[in-house]
Amino acid sequence: MTRPPLTLYLAAPRGFCAGVDRAIKIVELAIQKWGAPVYVRHEIVHNRFVVDGLRALGAVFVEDPDEVPPDRPVIFSAHAVAKAVPAEAARRQMIWVDATCPLVSKVHIEAERHHEAGLQIVMIGHVGHPETIGTMGQLPEGAVLLVETVADVARLMVRDPARLAYITQTTLSVDDTAGIVAALHRRFPAIIGPHKEDICYATTNRQAAVKAIAGRIDALLVIGAPNSSNSRRLVEVGRAAGCGYAQLVQRAGDIDWRALEGIGAVGITAGASAPEVLVNEVIDAFRARFETAVELVETATEAVEFKVPRSLRAPG
Ligand code: SF4
Question: Which of the residues 131, 141, 236, 276 is marked catalytic?
Answer without folding.
Answer: 131
